Amino acid sequence: MNIPFDNTHVTIETPRLLLRPFTEADLQYYFEYASIPGLGEMGGWAHHKTIAESEAGLQFYIQSKSAFAIYHKVDEKVIGEIGLWDSWTNKEEAYQHLKAKNISYALSKIYWGQGLMPEAAQALIEYGFTTLGLEAFGAEHFICNPQSGRVIEKCGFQFVRPGVFYSKELDKHFDELRYVLLR
């Protein structure tokens, strides 16, 4: 069961990160990582070629009130995004009675391999279970993106089944793996 979520006044702190709503001041940092070739494509969107593309994406995140900027405390800049969205579990008979959200994320390639995304995801999951009263999280990753799969597994998700995602932006179907995490 989908529940509404609004991150307007929410900040989540971890030892190295702040998860906070995006602001217009984040545009240059967002473009910096969203323009890295291959990064967006691992999530079903084309990497940004112009600052205008990033501006449109940033406005979507600000207006959706579902995505958090991942702010790196030491480097004092936004290095990625993580959000709570409507979950694929809401359409599955086994899970549709549960209050659930999907978690999705992207991180600048420069910061891969440092444990930052599991740190951010675990903090958001804890917030979802304790503050929002969620009963489940859904997650998925493209088979061609095993890095996201490792984050999902480190956070304790259990594999449910394969699926297919169609990206209108890329006009491409992606085979994906779907996972669930129950409270």
Task: Give the averaged pLDDT, no decimals.
Answer: 95
Instruction: Report, as a whole number of angstroms, the end-to-end distance.
Output: 14 Å
Q: CATH homologous superfamily - what is it?
A: Gcn5-related N-acetyltransferase (GNAT)
Number of strands: 8
* Low-confidence region ranges: none
Q: Going across the major beta sheet, what is the strand order?
A: 1-2-3-4-5-6-8-7
User: What general outline do the C-alpha atoms trace?
Assistant: globular
Query: Order of SSEs, N→C?
Result: EEHHEEEHEHEE
Structural class: alpha+beta
Architecture, CATH level 2? 3-Layer(aba) Sandwich
Helicity, as a percent range: 25-40%
Secondary structure tally, helices = 4
- How many domains? The number is 1
CATH topology: Aminopeptidase
Largest sheet: 8 strands, mixed
* CATH classification class: Alpha Beta
Strand content: 25-35%
What is the CA-based Rg, rounded? 15 Å
Defining traits:
Aminopeptidase, 4 helices, 8 strands, alpha+beta, eight-stranded mixed sheet, 32% strand, 183 residues
How do the strands and helices of this protein lay out in sequence?
Elements: E1 12-13, E2 17-21, H1 27-34, H2 51-64, E3 67-72, E4 77-85, E5 100-107, H3 116-130, E6 136-142, H4 146-154, E7 158-167, E8 172-182
Parallel strand pairs: 5-6
Antiparallel strand pairs: 1-2, 2-3, 3-4, 4-5, 6-8, 7-8
Helix pairs in contact: 1-2
Quickly describe the structure.
This protein is α+β, with helices and mostly antiparallel strands. The protein has helices at 27-34, 51-64, 116-130, 146-154, and strands spanning 12-13, 17-21, 67-72, 77-85, 100-107, 136-142, 158-167, 172-182. 25% of the residues lie in helices and 32% in strands.
